[in-house]
What we know:
This protein is of the alpha+beta class. The protein contains 3 helices and 19 strands.
Amino acid sequence: MSTYGLWLSAAGMQVNDHKQTVLANNLANSGTVGFKHDLAVVRQRLVESRENPGAPGVAHPVMDGLSGGLETLPTHVSFTQGSIEPTGRSLDIAIDGEGFFTVSDGQQERYTRDGVFTLNADGELVLSAGGGRWKLQGGGASIQTEPGQGKISVSSSGVIRQGDNVIGEIELVTNPDKQQLKKAGENLFENRGNEMVPADGILIAEAKEHSTFDAMQGLASMIQVTRAYQLNATMVQLQDQMTGQAVSRVGKVA
């Protein structure tokens, strides 16, 4: 029984270590524009006779009445809407509702909610994050501006103007199953599933979307998870001591 207890406590340490890792990454990106936080998913592991019913030699009259502990599952991304803050900067664009911007480095396409753009040396709209590698796509091409031709503005439907001239149009896209969008950086996603389809989000000019992760709540959760990890570690030590005492006393004659 003590060996089983050791296994359960060790599994608890693994689960809480996983939670700490996920929380630490979320905390590190609590100030990242357009960041969508990860959710640590765990499940109760059933005892072996229920996990593999019918397998020979797994049923046990005592163990079958105990818990099988916890185990981790793949993390999920929370695609909730982040709060939107006006910035007054003409190259900042936020999405209210459904959708992602499409950006490209010339070889790969990625999808993001980060709408903080700047101009590169060629006058193209690029993401401020990532060193200007990712170019905003409009109709499958980058958005090209001309120096001295007026202020850049964006309509709620995605039409981009420089002065009075239309220079491009942003087409928001999404995936019917967002869990097919896998993270490829702090706030970039790559599509590994269904074809991307048009989205009906509204664009808000001169604004940005904040991270969906609340730093204060995250710190409180980190403290709880750390304490849970420490409690499981203490249980491992106690059960190890009990096992050692049991072994050292076996066979002793009073």
